[in-house]
User: Which sequence fits this backbone?
């Protein structure tokens, strides 16, 4: 298994543009988590899906952020319009619901820079 | 979740044991202690977890005090590749578990 796959690895965009981050879950996993990491705030949970259904989106900073799971193995995180303060590393992670933490795997992240 | 307290940074000589402490004085009876680490530019990686007994795997050992208010992660023979941020997390295990990460301890292993 190739693990959790995120794309792109790096994204540089201008303020006001739409940004879409992508995540492919590990086969068989049914939970999906999006995190954001910055120096100031550390690693923050943005949203959590279980069986394609958003369970907790209280960490989504504002309406400019949206996340979807169009199918069981894929998720997108969209920022529209993007702002410089959105610059961060965005991680997704997947797990099998009910598993212990060794079933909880992170991707390599997408480093987003908004200029 | 029980709050955890970790030193912000530590250093260790290569080949020596690295002992990373974590305080979790408000831990509940059904809460486990989990350790993750994050190597630069990568996502966090699970290391080990335990409830009240000491645990060991191929990566590390976890020592939990008898009152469960603190624990220590031990890397028995640290290597340069163990340089990372180490997170101690306390949470009840199960399907609804969602790791919440604090600031962790930045461990630097030097030659």
Assistant:
């Amino acid at each position: 298994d190739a693990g959790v796959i995120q794309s792109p690895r790096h994204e540089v965009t201008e303020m006001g543009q739409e940004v879409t981050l992508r995540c492919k879950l590990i086969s068989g996993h049914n939970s999906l988590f999006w995190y954001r990491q910055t120096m100031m705030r550390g690693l923050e949970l943005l949203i959590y899906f279980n069986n394609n259904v958003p369970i907790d989106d209280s960490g989504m900073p504002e309406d400019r952020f949206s996340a979807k799971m169009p199918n069981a193995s894929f998720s997108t995180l969209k920022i529209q319009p993007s702002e410089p303060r959105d610059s961060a590393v965005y991680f997704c992670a997947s797990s099998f619901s009910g598993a212990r933490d060794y079933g909880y795997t992170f991707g390599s992240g997408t480093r987003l820079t908004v200029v | 979740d029980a709050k955890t307290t970790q030193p912000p940074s530590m250093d260790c000589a290569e080949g020596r044991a690295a002992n990373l402490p974590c305080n979790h004085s408000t831990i509940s009876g059904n809460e486990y202690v989990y350790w993750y680490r994050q190597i630069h530019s990568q996502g966090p990686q699970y290391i080990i977890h335990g409830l009240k007994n000491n645990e060991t795997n191929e990566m590390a050992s976890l020592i939990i005090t008898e009152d469960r208010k603190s624990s220590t992660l031990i890397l028995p023979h640290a290597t340069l590749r163990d340089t990372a941020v180490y997170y101690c997390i306390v949470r009840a295990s199960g399907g609804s578990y969602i790791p919440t990460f604090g600031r962790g301890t930045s461990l630097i292993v030097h030659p």
Summary: The two ends of chain B are 37 Å apart (CA to CA). Chain B has a mean pLDDT of 91. The beta strands of chain B are 9-13, 18-23, 31-38, 45-50, 55-56, 61-64, 70-75, 84-92, 105-110.
